[in-house]
Amino acid sequence: MLKNKSMKGFKNMTTSISMPRNSSYTKVLSGNKPLEGFLLKAVDFYGKELMTTRMFNTLKIKVHVRKTVLKRGVSGAVINNCKGSIKQNEYLITLDYNESCNDILKTLAHEMVHVMQIATKKLQYRYWKSDKKLHFRWNGEEMGELSKFPYRNQPHEIEAKERQDKLFMKFYYYFIMNKKSEQYKLRNKYR
After folding, report:
1. How far apart are CA 63 and CA 77, in angstroms?
2. Residue 180 pLDDT
3. Most distant CA pair in the chain: distance in Å?
4. What is the pTM of this model?
5. What is the domain count for the chain?
6. According to the model, what pLDDT value does residue 18 have?
7. CA-to-CA distance for 53 and 189, rounded, in angstroms?
8. 3 state SS of 51
């Protein structure tokens, strides 16, 4: 398990990556580097692209890459407490180990968009006492029961799908192709 503590001044933010047993070195990206290290960099990169550094550094994100936990056809999921507008700073992202490395990183980008949506209260989940069902709010507007919205029509899924490819390509270009732009180097020098 890899852990990444934030920079000085922001000691609350931690990211941890957990891979299936005996598998951290079986999935590799360019240059035979293990996926685990890229996931740690990707969480940091996606978080800082999507949120302010200050907000991102208050979060605790665990990423579990698993072989059999997710339903068939599901590549990833974010788990958090469904407490509506109460501030949440702990998130568990589960990713499917059976996907290709690039697909795992794309799915991580998608799930990090959901983390941003929940952290900024753009997306809120809550169980209603009256019907004991999961409801959601989008941009402060009550949308109703989550189960009554087809997956592809849910506004938070539409936004995550639109942003995941751009985030992944930026990460791929900077870290995997080793072509960090001067702007990115300067920006991170002062973080």
Report:
1. 10
2. 54
3. 55
4. 0.81
5. 1
6. 83
7. 13
8. coil
Query: Quick check: 183 pLDDT over 60?
Result: no
Please state whether beta strands 134-138 and 123-127 pair in parallel, antiparallel, or not at all (unpaired).
antiparallel
Whether 117 shows a pLDDT value over 90: the answer reads yes
Order the strands of the 60-66 sheet from edge to edge.
2-5, 14-18, 60-66, 90-96, 76-79
CA distance 165 to 2: 25
Per-residue pLDDT reduced to its tens digit, 67-90: 878 888 888 999 887 765 677 788
11, amino acid identity: K
Contact 174, 181 (CB under 8 A): yes
Would you state the torsion angle of the CA atoms of residues 105, 159, 16, 169, taken in this order, to the nearest 10 degrees? 30
Of 78, 72, 87, the C-alpha closest to 12 is 87
Helix ranges, 27-130 (H):
35-50, 53-56, 101-119
Question: pLDDT tens, 4-35?
Answer: 444 333 345 588 888 887 665 556 555 556 78
- Residue 35 lies in domain: 2-189
Spatial contact of 122 and 133, defined as CB atoms under 8 Å apart:
no
